[in-house]
Amino acid sequence: MNKSIFAFAFLLASVPSAFAEPVWVQVRQSQLRAQPKFYASSTGSVRYGDKLERVSESGGWVKVQAQGREGYLPLSAVSEDHIVLSSADLQKVRADSTQVVLAGKGFSKEVEQQYKRDGSQLRYDLVDYVEQSARVSPGEVSQFINQGGLK
Amino acid sequence: MKKRILPLLASLCCSAVGCSHPGFQELGSQVLSSTGYMSQSQAQGIMSASSNLVKSQEELLPEQEYYLGRAVSATVLGQYPPRRSQAATEYLNKIGMTLASVSDAPETFGGYHFMVVESPQINAFSAPGGFVYVSSGFIKELPDEDAVAAVLAHEIAHVVKRHGVNAISNAKLFSALTEFSTTGASIAASQVSSPVDLGEITGVFAESVSGVVDTLLTKGFDRSQEYEADLYAAELLQRAGYDPNALVRVLGILESHSKEEAKDGGWYATHPAPADRVAELSSDFTFPAPEKAPAARQARFAALRH
Q: Which uninterrupted H or E stretch holds A42?
């Protein structure tokens, strides 16, 4: 009996998803940081759907590794679900045992295009203006925080 | 030995193809830990991981929230056009990112965007994914940077707590979206060959956008969500180094305008009475002694105001 349970435990331990603990980037793009702080210096950039290895996790930050690089990301930037960027890539994860999410489906760019065609009053031009103009660089915010006596 | 392993293994593997009976996970955890081959916490770790295999999509993914937020914004901005002032936009985004960066969701799919919108009403709202709008009428009433931060912190709280998205959670929505989120085996077998009709998903999308817009501009969030946003805003202000008392001051400003503004809609039509919010907040948050902002912070606000 003991042998059988040991073999079962060994088998479970061999399942990569239970131990390798990968995470996938779920924001359009982000920076790996040298420290678990939003405005820490960058050690490299990551993009939507990138697979990363989770090293550790603490205080809303996850330490990850990818292709020899290491750094921190906010937990809100990663997902435990396997994000797949194209239907073609789905075939490669057929046997994958984790939850799979097909990016660009559901509420997506494609649906937005269709929704735009249906509604002539929609002001997507203003939304694009907001996205392009309402942004500041991390360096600017960091300076703003210091100048204003903030944390 | 094989006969003993297989039934249990089959039970656990069932979770990978959509069988969601919780008893299988509990059984596995008990067996592994009781035999001494693994600690209780190790066994629970494995079972926790396996529970991820069976969940259906019960909330929007960040990418989907982003497209929903863009559509909500496309409607809202038609009524409240953006103020095209680079200096004001930059200042608002620096304050907003100072707060968002200490929140529990410092990064969203498309990032946060803060914008002053043209309206004499006293109003502020946020769309899913991180679009935050404050009316020019409201900005005019705010006396200092900490007060602006208090308004933004409240709106960031709605984004982080996903209150806008919660307004549209319904079975039809998640039934449609779950088609795109499943286990590897079933998605490969079904999804690629039979995609959901674009017209159908666009219909669900349009209904969802209407639901959020209606909540933001007409119905308002639940009182409990507003109180939750106030409490979280006070915490964000404190974490960022702003004075949380600014939130009470802003609620005082709202109170002083409440009678005249209530007729015109805006914030007053969609939020609980300011006095009730102060009372609720004061019972849940320990405010520090009010603090005077450093001269540099006061100066940059004054420079922009004049």
A: strand A42-47
